[in-house]
Every structure is written in structure tokens, then in C-alpha cells.
């Protein structure tokens, strides 16, 4: 595979429909913009519709906006119902939106904010839209994780919502580890259907608004180092775009920057932490996620 994969490598996307969450800024904006420029009909799933429309106005091509608040399962269900009414098929679902290092907060449904937004909201959305994807050959679900899935990361089944103690770094790591476990388990369940694939990606260290809640102790060193260790949102979006569009990409793969320590660079295949591949934990997380969201996927258990 090329070491210099860029948006120029994206095949034509004419006739394809892409739904991108968190697409009004940062990585999501760059992802949606690139897909639209290559001919896809792109739906920006955003919490703030006004900002979403402003973002759409800065893109070329067929770009529309859908209200979607991943911190509310009611909003996720409403958005999924609206997308069912608007779209007869979906080729790409890009689970990009996320929060990072929040002070202790909960979603509308009482979930810890990072786990609830980054994992449970996307889990529910994917389950509710999957019937629009399964009949479509070559359709893909791409979920954006992070190198943070390795940092103090575990699935804390005894305290998933961090009610007894709270670490904003640990909670973020749990949510990003959950993104990967969800991807791998979803691919396992999709494998007998032969149409839709599940992949994951991470942006390395990109200069986006996501880091606005970085703890104070880390903020100053990161500010000093930023010019050396960060890349633009456009570069950070490339692993997601490769996972979504590269004809050679396969279900269950994980893409990230190809530079040293996966901090920046052109996208390539990478591997995630050993913990992320634990099948029993993936399956337990899936069952808990179904219970918490009330969303059951239209898939039979495989293997």
C-alpha cells in the first residue's frame, strides 16, 4: 500500500450516501468535505443545526444537515427515524463525533459523558441505521477511536459510569477502547452477511477543538509541543477517509497515521492494544450496550 495516501486516492463517490457525525468542525468537517468533493451525498449529523448549516455552506456538492445529539438517546432515535424517511440507503456511516477529558458530567440518560457520547450514542445510532446499510454492497461503518484507548484504559464493568470515582483520562480511555471493541465485535457479526464492513481509525494528534478540556497540568506542555507533535484536521481525517473509501480496506482493520508512534503522517494499517482484541470482553460490552441503549442490532450472533 502507498505510504502517501491522500484525498487524491479517494475513488469517485457518486451515488453513495454518507452520514458523518460531528461534522460541523475539525475531523468530521474535513471528512465530510472530502467525501462531498468526491461526489458523495453527505449528511452532517450535528448537535447544533445552525453551525451545521454554516459548515455545509463551506462545502461543495450535495451536503445536508441532520440534528443529532449523541448525549440523548431520544435524539438519536429521532435522527435515525428522520434519516430513514430521507434516505433509502446508506453507504457510509462515519462515527466521528466525540468528547474528551470532560469534567465529570452525565448525558441526558444518566451515562458518564464520554462513555455515553463516544460509545453508547454511536452504538445506538449504528444499530438503528444498519438496516439501511445491510442491503448495500461495499457499505462501511467507520468508528473513530484514539491512541488514548491505550492510556489507563479498561472496560470498568463494575463502574461503567464512574459513579464511585472519576478520572477524566481514564473515562476517555474507556470510551475509546469501547469504540474499538464495538468495531471488532460488529465486524464479527457482519462477517456472514458479506455486504457491510466495520472498520476503525484514529487521527493521531490533531489540532482540533476536542482537546479544549485537557487537564491544566497537561495543557501548557501540549501548547509548547503542539507545533512539533500535531497535524492539521485535514491530515487527521485521512485515516478515517482511507478506512471509508480505500477499495483494499477490509472489515476489522484499523487505520492511523504512519509516522513515529502514530502521532502524525499519512494513513496506514495499525494495530490496537492487546486488550481491545479480547473477544469475551467485546461480547460482554455489546450485551451491556444493548441493555443500556435498548437498541438491538438486526444481526444474528456469529460463532
Automatic annotation (TrEMBL):
Matches recorded under Gene3D superfamilies: NAD(P)-binding Rossmann-like Domain
Keyword Cytoplasm: no
SUPFAM superfamilies: NAD(P)-binding Rossmann-fold domains
InterPro entries noted in UniProt: NAD(P)-bd_dom_sf, SDR_fam
Superkingdom as given in the UniProt entry: Bacteria
A Pfam family: adh_short
Keywords: Oxidoreductase
NCBIfam families in alphabetical order: PRK06197.1
Family per record: Belongs to the short-chain dehydrogenases/reductases (SDR) family.
UniProt xrefs under PANTHER family: PHOSPHATIDYLINOSITOL-GLYCAN BIOSYNTHESIS CLASS F PROTEIN (PTHR43157:SF31), PHOSPHATIDYLINOSITOL-GLYCAN BIOSYNTHESIS CLASS F PROTEIN-RELATED (PTHR43157)
Designated name of the protein: SDR family NAD(P)-dependent oxidoreductase
Species: Paractinoplanes bogorensis
